[in-house]
Amino acid sequence: MPVPSQQIRYILSGGGDGWEILHRARQLAAAGDPPLNLCVGEHDEPTPPEILAAMDASARGGHTGYAGLAGTPGLRRALAERVSARQGVPVGPSNIVVTGGGQGALFYALNAMLDPGDAAVVIDPYYTVYPGTIRTAGGVPRIARARTENGFQPDFATLDAACDGAKALLVNTPNNPTGAIYSGETLEMIAEICIRRDLWLISDEVYDGMSFARPHRSPAALPGMAERTVVVGSMSKSYAMCGFRCGWAAGPEGLIKLMTDLALNVAYGQPGFVMDAAEFALGRPDIEARICGTFARRHEIARRALAGAQAARAGASDGAMYLMIDIRPTGLSGRDFARLMIEEERIAVMPGESFGEAAAGHVRATLTLPDDQLHTALTRLAEVAGDLAAGRRAAPAA
Hints:
With 398 residues, the chain is of the alpha/beta class. It is built from 13 helices and twelve strands. Helix 5 (101-113) packs across helix 6 (130-136). It is globular and about 60 Å long. It starts with 5 loop residues before the first helix and ends in an 8-residue tail after the last helix. The model has no long low-confidence stretch (mean pLDDT 95).
């Protein structure tokens, strides 16, 4: 019988997907025993009804046929205005392509930048799909580890060495999974490396509205970077529109044109009624402020829940909807601790190892539970970690 392609084998060669705890949480929920689920970055509140009403009106008004490959003119204008305001660099509609979520933008950008065998660098910890998406373009993922002791900010020597001979660098700030926001010094270091080594830069900024402890800055705004940078954004997080699959890429016009041509062969554009809903949402900054404000508040709740905990230490999370928690004093790996929490406590958190090796001995908590449940889950997590570290509770059998 025919065999699968070597290309698909290569794309999936990174091993497991790292989501076994989430799968277990959903299995328990289906069986009527739902855990407190802090695994996945999906809102606990639904998409705002006014956005749904805008989408419904568009669909009922007839915008259900094929829409423009690069996006509707109105949405591209709205996105250009947003990106220009947040980057501080003028961007026009011709610098924008609308994609199937932020993931679609990553796919198009990497395929426009890489030739087979080219290396692209990602910073560990990284969003789980980054290496596989690089492989979809025939690229070779290279890993530059950031250290928890440095707040998961990459250091120059490690990043520069990983970029030697590479074609592209992919960064994410505010960061998933750590919640770190790159400092001005880190961004200037990234720009220096990109310019000196003549790299493309993909800046994943899907959490740009969730900058709490320090302001978000885009590396595209730094001198010499606009012509080599693609900024990735999405409606998913700041507007609670995850299932709409509406993202975008902003970058040099020539590269955006190539990405749009690729879209013809991949998705043939995005649904017009979804893009109309996105355009409506962008015109309502109060919606984004309300949704992002929820996560600013929950960051403070999480910090209070873990305050003083010696065996479950909150990382330097400045934004996004995540908290990376260091549980190394327990003596367990992130995987073993997460398994214990789901099976014995019915609290679901992601192992740090799901996002690379730099966060081994950590777990990621997503701040997507109502405030009281979030406080309960994290307080209990800290208690369990403390009992393990003090020997008051036995570690699970291997």
